[in-house]
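Newbie here. two chains, one complex. Structure please?
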Amino acid sequence: MSTYPEKSRGELISIRDQLRRDYETFKKRGLKLDMSRGKPGAEQLDLCEGMLTVLSRNVDCFSPGGTDCRNYGLLDGIPEARELFAELLGVSPEEVIAAGNSSLSLMYDAVMRAMYLGVAGGEPWAREGKVRFLCPVPGYDRHFSVCEAFGIEMLTVDMTPAGPDMDAVERLVSTDASIKGIWCVPMYSNPQGITYSDDTVRRFARLKPAAKNFRIFWDNAYFIHHLGAEHDTLLNILDECKAAGNPDLVYIFASTSKISYPGAGVAVVAASKTNIDHIKKQISIQTIGPDKLNQLRHVRFFGSAEGVREHMKKHAKCLSPKFGAVLARLDAELSGLGIAFWNRPRGGYFISLDTIDGCAKRTLALLSDAGVAMTPAGATFPYGRDPRDRNIRIAPTFPPVGELETAAELFCLCVKLAAVEKLLETP
Amino acid sequence: MSTYPEKSRGELISIRDQLRRDYETFKKRGLKLDMSRGKPGAEQLDLCEGMLTVLSRNVDCFSPGGTDCRNYGLLDGIPEARELFAELLGVSPEEVIAAGNSSLSLMYDAVMRAMYLGVAGGEPWAREGKVRFLCPVPGYDRHFSVCEAFGIEMLTVDMTPAGPDMDAVERLVSTDASIKGIWCVPMYSNPQGITYSDDTVRRFARLKPAAKNFRIFWDNAYFIHHLGAEHDTLLNILDECKAAGNPDLVYIFASTSKISYPGAGVAVVAASKTNIDHIKKQISIQTIGPDKLNQLRHVRFFGSAEGVREHMKKHAKCLSPKFGAVLARLDAELSGLGIAFWNRPRGGYFISLDTIDGCAKRTLALLSDAGVAMTPAGATFPYGRDPRDRNIRIAPTFPPVGELETAAELFCLCVKLAAVEKLLETP
């Protein structure tokens, strides 16, 4: 079997005409499917039912340490929640702030404070003129939106199978003092599912930024979100930063949004004691403290770090068939055609697929017209601009497997149709 | 009986010596009492026990409108929570954002965004040079801290029994374009328990600020926090602003921190549709949405605005004896001495007492040495500087009545001792 790019014009036309007929048939079905965002499925959320009643009586609302979690206090969260996250993240409890329901808010606020109030021992970024961020691409659209909101210019760095292109990162960070930060999703990256290699993590820890107030924004969103027993491992960035004499270089973010509840989880920031003390002083102006009752619910329901890991095995049982269904369809329909290249992640929430250049937007327009919602083309790049118009983020976690199979079938058809149209355009 | 200032030096010396002996006796008791912060008592929190289990099963987690409140979504909160607050605040649901657990965070974030990103239709404050705020005094220390954190210069305006001195407010706001906002606690103000008169509210609504991006920060923290059936009423500022052709002039903040749980309540911001739409656009970068499960708990537990009001009557039953105990002691010990002046609030969380000039710090130092923690002297003024060193904020809500009576007895003793010392200093 030859690839599409190798086929003759005549062959392509007859493929296109057949695809168009198939597409019209699909369109008539009036589908309404959604593979747009990385949302857990209801069956994952159902697994936390016990958390709803783990605090049932007034006396339950006191933490093991004796704090009345209903009342004001504890700016950095309840100690038992900090201990739980510390163990999960491989840091010590005084290096953790347990906060509200959103790690995105923690990141947004950290950028805001760094811009206008300053990081520990450093000038506010905004006071030093132009502010730039490095953005490995493809990446997470909401990271890019934060930069855009604050007028931070984004420079892209290509992803490799081992993480961001570290030659580029090192060169840029060490020479350009306007570069104040970099967004990283170091494990099961969004959208590619790539876990940074040990070498990549060590090179991050050893960065020698030209900007003294530079920080790595280490969004460890999928730190225990494996899809099976065979899983990736990630080196501990804070340990490596300490070993490299750069303890304050990194802010680590995580949450239980995709462990317990996306709307009602617990988010954390972890960093060196110096960074944490500085952040605590700054956020003491913004809040009296997080929702401690919800933190206590998490502590009581999971019991221990091991309890969280066991819980994630149940998530994997829900998710792995979904990823499997989509990958099986991609394999069956698109393998060997030379028009699509995708990853096989061992964790996280996404499958990333590259079409041939210039086909992502058209593919998604076709899908949308037939009733399947996807993350908009370009969303995985700063300013929504994918220079090669080829990256598509597939989010297979929310729909039931049945719907997913239909959506994936249609998806493959649209990838093929867009590709063949593009090839026919080319003289 | 003559007042202290009218007494002879000899009389004052003998009073002082007796007070010192009484104080030493108190000191030996090794008290550990706290009248420092406006925290609800445990018995108030106990009243919400039913809220803990109002969502017990997975099926309970769907809002009346059908939203799975466990998952992502609904940036501005669940419609049912917005409706509940809309009714309580006298606005419409689309004029409300139901958010996380902290109105302080909403205010901090609103100031931050106004500073650096801009209010609806206006330039970011920070882009226009010096930024000033009006601060009615005495006032709430955490408001002042927000200004201080962002380098906003605070100008004080005196409080009157009808609210801030509106002659001063009007003059300053209409002539000084660097004045971008004013902090207001319009009902049962912190610390004086003053509710703004109808005339004051109307004058606020009719302000003609020199700064086009001026906003009133209307922190309605105690909007239904009455101490008894006889209570104050507050005119609806948003209605008045609309009537005056100034619909976008005000941001209203409120929360259930002192209705349900201080650590685990629901905070809201209410404003014109234009303001709300603008805020929603801005916060869409910061968060995917608030904790909807907790909002649903509130909606289910209270059932209706009337349910919230009934609940607050139970709070009044807990709090009114506490206020009564402190006021009775102040009346008995300090009336007619010419050394202390205090309010008799009909709601809120504080009693404000003015000593004679120059005695607040000394009074609180004496109290602290004898084991009673109070809000630091000066805290009710910007930068912690009470120019006359006379205002003391008493927070009688948290300790049990028995402790409160002891603390109030010692408090009166310290007020007297500090006053007599001061009078003896004066030649």
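Moderator note: The longest strand of chain B covers residues 153-160. The first helix of chain B runs from residue 9 to 28. Thread marked as resolved.
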